[in-house]
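Researcher: Here's a chain I'd like modeled. Treat it as a single chain, no partners, no ligands.
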Amino acid sequence: MKKQLMLLGLLGMTYLSSYAQKINRKAVVERHTVSVASFDTLASLSVGNGRFAFTVDATGLQSFPKYYTNGVPLGTQSVWGWHSFPNKENVKFEETLKEYTLNGRKVTYSVQGAKNAKSKEAINYYRENPHRLQLGNLGFIFKKKDGSNAQITDIVVQNQQLNPYTGQITSHFTLEGQPVTVLTVCDPNQDIVSVNIQSALLKTGQIQVFLKFPFPSNQFLDSGTNYKNPDQHQSAIVSAQSQSAVVKHQLDADQYFVRLDWSKNATIASQQAHEFILTPKVGDGTWEFSANFSEKKPTTASHFPAINQRNISAWKSFWNSGGAIDFEGSTDVRAKELERRIVLSQYLTKIQCANEQPPQETGLTYNSWYGKPHLEMHWWHGIHFALWGRVDLLEKSLDWYTKVYPNAVGIAKRQGYDGARWQKMTNPAGEESPSSVGAFLIWQQPHFIYFAELVRRQKPTKATLQKYSKLVFATADFMASYPHWDEENKRYILGKGLIPAQERFNPEETFNPTYELVYWHWALKVAQDWRKAMGLKPNEKYDKILQNLSKLPVKDGVYLATESAQDSYTNPKFLTDHPSVLGALGMLPPTPMLDMPTMQRTFDKVWDVWQWHDTWGWDFPMVAMTAARLGRPEKAIDGLMMHIRTNTYLPNGHNFQDERLRLYLPGNGGLLATIAMMCNRDDLPAGKTSFPTNGQWKVKWEGFKKMP
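Model: Modeled as a single isolated chain. Structure tokens:
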């Protein structure tokens, strides 16, 4: 008997050891090292630190920026790099406002419909300014044997690799048979790109480096290759020594600096406006240099060996913290590709989205919507950090809401509401940008409560409550004052005067969208929980809304997109864009408002009739979340891996959308959030996942935090 007990004990230990075996994170990450074998304009690679990103072509620098203009551009962007053109016409923001009569009262919104010429000027100015800057192009000039400059067709790409585990890009190529190897890294703490070059071409003086400053395009997109208007900005070398130089770039009232440091003697000179050429002295075939982009003049030298070591250490720390997932051994043919998307999405969101501002949808690579963040997208950009056990990366951007809080209060007050109404399309100062869609969106409003609740769940302390409660309650105060009382039916209505997350509806006619109703109810309930945690009485107004909010609109046994759209599934227009009706379960947990059988039927209806070719990158994670909550793991995988253009993930890991949005980070963030919730959430039984149990999926995970 004693021997049997010992044997059982040993078997138990073996079982526990196998079950608790840690994932080999380095192996998982490095098996998705990116390899590029040509000048592929949709496969450019980036290094970065969350506040700064630098994107390169196959030479390891930005040697051919014009060639990449219509692909994933060779951007250099930072959170501090913004510019505004002078307001020469002295237009006022108030000139962007339009008055609407909604629910029996007058309300103003900042929209794009111009009333007159002056109004149009104001609308254009406040949409276009401020805009994020492309800080500069930093690339190689290669000299051929005959002394002429090499063109892109003269460079033969051997192989370029991005190792996400080390954050290093290694580029191998040849010019006229001579090999060149370039190692590119970014400092984890400063906006510095640093490079090691090895080539016999250095011995013959055939390699130079250029720094070129483009001019803001003032367009929806800015790929950083606008070299027009040289007389409208200024740049100059402000200091130069044998192994360093500082260049200043001035645009109207804005300025910044680039400090260059190099390992061996070189000269720097300007041959044409806004372009500076760094020429290393003929050497032994190895040369290193760094470029420090900064708002203020840098005074400290930056050298490759130290930066490279800090970079490697920082990435090792990142990958060995928080969550991880491993599909090794899975036989479903989609598993390897899904794991690739997961690994590269972690890398991309870390370098593009982890900073003190909500990110723009194209991160720190190139401008979309003039480089401005969209707050409704912050959920998709940010919650995965918390779910993957990296809540501090989410918190970096939450302090921004405190900074812009007065502007949010001002919007609510102008419109006759309480609390703070969070902006949609905004800028670093939290100022509104005119938008005929964005002005009417409301689904960004509860996001702050969701963010704060994720923090509280992981840091259930008095300090957390004290830090975020003011904004939680201000957010809820607006939410409690926004609904309109329907006296006839004795209920509160969301709208009229809104556009749902599915941006296909007329704001003046739309009311009671399903997803927003559920989100409103959930967030106000969480706000009451915060009051309880702080020892406060429940807010009577919150309770009044919770008890009397309109029921979810149903027709023919399925949830409608909005109560005002009884033709939600027969009008072709309403079968495009985001199927946000599904967000009522998936993005959000089961709530008393929602009936599960009705949502099952709704899911099937949407799956069958939706025009999936007219969707966005985060729609596929949203669908997968709903399927997971409904206990349909096969559909969750089918949703994540749907073969649709906007669900394309490029070789570099970016989520491609169309010719405008060649990368789209809400898709990457949404994928990561979905994977985490498929492994660990409140409504998932312990020891279970939402992956298929058909034997084709082997899933090992660790470190995920529970999603509500």
